[in-house]
Amino acid sequence: MQDHLVFLNDFLFNRVIEVPAIGNAEGLTVLWDNSILELGDVATIEQEIHAIVKHDRLSTKYYLHHIGIDTDPLCFSCHLPETTKHIFLECKHVKKFWDKNSLSELYTNSTVASTSKHCLSWKNVFPFFLWCIWLNSNTNIFNKTNLDIPNIAYERAVEYHFLASKGKSTRKMVVPSTIWTPPMSGIALNVDGSFNLTQGGVEFVFRNNEGCWIVGFSASINVQSSFEAETTALIIGIKMALQMRLSQLTVATDSKKLATLLFDSSASDCSMMNLTSLLFAGIY
């Protein structure tokens, strides 16, 4: 699973990749500013955040001031240097949040978590907590309000889980059993006819008993029905087989009506009888 979470000023929380961390089958590997950090589920919240903020490359007030941009380096609320660590751990707004909620309480008390905890783990939600804390910091500056961090984080995590992540599919792949049974000996003739409101088409192919292609034919014809097209394809195919002196011929058609009428002497449709009589005339 990969995600691209855009922080303020298009700074990228580059990727969150769900793969086992070294030495911890349930770990979380985070690619941050081209550096790999290993975060285990056994780590505390503070340890996890310290592992990330040690790079201190977010566009905080302190960092912008440090690289020469004329801006106040202090936090709007606390009047302390606004470092990455301060935003995520030390600011009075977020400190209340962490002090009030243990990891397990965050997971069980959220209204969204009650319906999603069966499919989400802490490592799924943790990046979204960081994202919402960052948003909350900016909301405090511009709107002087606080966000509902737990529920917003879980809402985003659930949305990502079901709409963007590549979860394990529970569907079973069904491979259809399509087998062509070659004739015992001789040649197989497979015929097909098609028809729409304006024109028809015929095609057929000869194969030997090993399934190898011998010769094929296709053409557009003037017919009045798909049955007539199928029958015409068979007539042309039989005549070509006679010209090529092909014996021991096995015929395959997907027209049940044609297959039935060839051996039904009680057929009452005159047009069909005429077509089949032409066929037998070509054979004999």
TrEMBL record:
Q: Which InterPro entries match?
A: RNase_H-like (IPR053151), RNase_H-like_dom_plant (IPR044730), RNaseH-like_sf (IPR012337), RNaseH_domain (IPR002156), RNaseH_sf (IPR036397), RVT-Znf (IPR026960)
Q: Which CDD domains match?
A: RNase_H_like (cd06222)
**Pfam families, per the entry:** RVT_3, zf-RVT
Q: Which residues form the RNase H type-1 domain?
A: 190-267
Output the superkingdom of the source species: Eukaryota
Tell me the ranges covered by the Reverse transcriptase zinc-binding domain, including all copies.
52-98
Q: Which GO terms describe its molecular function?
A: nucleic acid binding; RNA-DNA hybrid ribonuclease activity
Q: What is this protein called?
A: RNase H type-1 domain-containing protein
Q: Which organism is it from?
A: Capsicum baccatum (Peruvian pepper)
